[in-house]
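Help: read this over?
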Amino acid sequence: AFKNTPISEKESTCYYCTEVCGRVFGAISFKYDEDSFYIYNLSTNVDNRRQGYATQMLAYLENLGKASGKMVSCLSVDKKLLYLVDWYKSKGYIIYSSDDDYYAMIKYLK
């Protein structure tokens, strides 16, 4: 079964390892404030990509945010990683600003 296990929380930054049947295959970390949260890392092991785990991890974070009263999910994506920008767009994120290297993306949680 899919499971996110908290491994640390320091100064509003949370770290989780993600497991399936007791095997760690990814990690997520995020920071939250009063009405939003910022995803710092959402990653899966190379051998576990393209199996839907990242989608489940993202949904877990968004549901956690909603349950905590957060209204916005935020993240940054390297402009060189267009496949990742497209993946987040397919999950409802929009680009709201950018600099030379990164897109800042947000999703309003309902």
